[in-house]
């Protein structure tokens, strides 16, 4: 049986590890943190996993959080042309909903479970020298270390990377005491698009310690009105600024936050990163090669909620590709072909959809949203396709084809 090494115990790495373990492969996960350290870490993301990705982990027997907790089953979008003004409201259901779970609980539990199922776990911070040794000792090494590690090992793909700097300054937090969103007939992902300033999101969320709560994510266009979190150093301060932002930009939801607070000092974040697509083959000084997967090669802004979903889909596709490859060597050509297949079937749409949302909506998309505010199948399609952005293409790129969809739905 093949002997696979995986660097990084996140969504991409662990899901791949479980998939291969199930088929009898010898798999070693190298993690820079123990399960306890993963659990006690500072918040790194507030994520919603859509239906297909959620299904992959259910199939692997990895949904350990079936208890109480309601998750978003639709979306509720306000389009605001100016602070305090709502021009459009779009509500739609997600046909195949998923879950929003604290990744600290998930990764910690999964890493312990991986060992329990017979996987090998080595706790160490892997560097390039260590990678050399690991690449010599495994049939294949997959690097899944997220957005901050090994970025220089994988060359930036200039054709596929449209940004050279961060497009949003991010602030995220897990909050308690937030009033429920009573304006939708289903638990919803609440989106506010504040034209020229950025976006606000909130959703029901499962906190690692306290269970069902809510999380917020603010995506501020640098230097604009939502960009107020520079220099914030405590949870209390971050919460106060968030409340003030909402009072100024969308007073109709600010009231939900009045009695809310951040759950603890490690459950909020501010930061920014440059969305980047990288080449999947990492060449070590010796000439040996390793393969990248997840954020390390496809890093998207969280505006479309894609990164975790993409990591899951990449892990699923990679599991299939490794199994299909049998006993053949994992050459750089195989690595490139495996990534290209994912890119053309899914990755390009994930990246294009995310980058589209980072720009002001073109007139035909605004027209679609306007129609969706009155015609529910259009609204359902809009929110449902977040989980499967390839379904937006090719029509979303064409004003004519978008218009045809609007007319057909309106007529029906
Ligand atoms: C604020 C915010 C909100 C988000 N919301 C969403 C959302 O709603 N939906 C969505 O799909 N995505 C979302 N994302 C993106 C999502 O969190 C990431 O895309 C996803 O976690 C990437 O998974 P990964 O496995 O590639 O990397 P990670 O989850 O980052 O895991 C990498 C692991 O590798 C370990 N590691 C790092 N370096 C080393 C090393 N040298 N040696 C050993 N181990 C190492 C790390 O400790 C970590 O455990 C959001 C991101 C942010 C910042």
From TrEMBL:
InterPro entries: FAD/NAD-bd_sf, StyA_sbd. GO terms for molecular function: monooxygenase activity. Keywords: Monooxygenase, Oxidoreductase. Residues 146-256 form the Styrene monooxygenase StyA putative substrate binding domain. The keyword Oxidoreductase applies. It comes from the Bacteria. This is Putative monooxygenase subunit. It comes from Corallococcus coralloides (strain ATCC 25202 / DSM 2259 / NBRC 100086 / M2) (Myxococcus coralloides).
